[in-house]
Design goal:
By secondary structure, the protein is an alpha/beta fold. The protein has 8 helices and 8 strands. A hairpin with an 8-residue loop joins strand 1 and strand 2.
């Protein structure tokens, strides 16, 4: 279910100008998610769906201006048509592909690993807090299987949003010790406002200095650690 299309982004695909394709639907219910329109079934039911042919055509028309496409959601791996869509992007549009995923569907992830050039995978929280972080919908064991898949490709990142009450700086070293050394680790600052659960819309985020300190605590566990606002 392709819900929307962004023609140009300078931030979604590191090192590339990209288009962005948004898939609706998610198997998790992270209370701090800032894309409720791509998660809630009642909202999804009333949304417009973009035709795959039209999206491939728009991507092909942008070849030469954009050099990549980010596939995001929601959770794109829920779509049975995703492998075929990725093949069409490669053959008809000739663009590099970045996939965003929550990492809880390792079997489906394995089916597309040879069709993507970059994977950005969420690490929601420490293993013991995964239930709270995902609305009781995820197992960290599935995430571990996906981590091994992602680490097998040259270009990837793992990312964690620092949400007060769910994940703190002190949780991060133990989390990355479970993953093993990674190429790139990205910390994101929680943004209040529009969230899946109203309980999180007014939570005060950690201050920027706290996020930088959190990054310093795990620099020895990754080749590169970045902070994104």
């Amino acid at each position: 279910m392709i819900r929307s299309f962004l023609g140009t982004s300078l931030i979604e695909y590191p090192g590339r100008i990209s288009s962005v394709v948004f898939f609706g639907g998610c198997n998790l219910y992270c209370p701090f998610c800032h894309n409720p329109e791509l998660v809630k079934p009642d909202i999804l039911a009333g949304q417009y769906t973009l035709d795959e042919d039209a999206v491939v055509r728009m991507l092909s028309e942008r070849h030469g201006f954009v050099d990549g496409v980010c596939i995001t959601g929601g959770e794109p791996l829920l779509s049975p048509s995703l492998p075929g869509f990725l093949r069409r992007i490669r053959s008809e549009a000739g663009l590099a592909v970045k996939l965003d995923t929550n990492g809880t569907l390792p079997d489906r992830l394995s089916e597309v690993m040879d069709l993507v050039d970059y994977v950005a995978m969420d690490l929601k929280a420490a293993p013991e807090a995964y239930g709270k972080a995902t609305g009781g919908k995820a197992s960290f064991e599935d995430v571990l299987r996906s981590i091994e898949l992602v680490r097998s490709i040259p270009d990837y990142e793992f990312r964690t949003t620092l949400v007060p009450g769910i994940v703190s700086a002190g949780d991060l070293p133990g989390l990355l010790e479970r993953t093993g050394r990674v190429r790139r680790y990205v910390l994101q600052r929680f943004r209040p406002g529009k969230t899946l659960s109203p309980d999180y819309s007014g939570i005060t985020p950690y201050p920027p200095g706290y996020v930088e300190q959190a990054a310093d605590r795990v620099r020895h566990l990754a080749d590169e650690v970045l902070v994104r606002s």
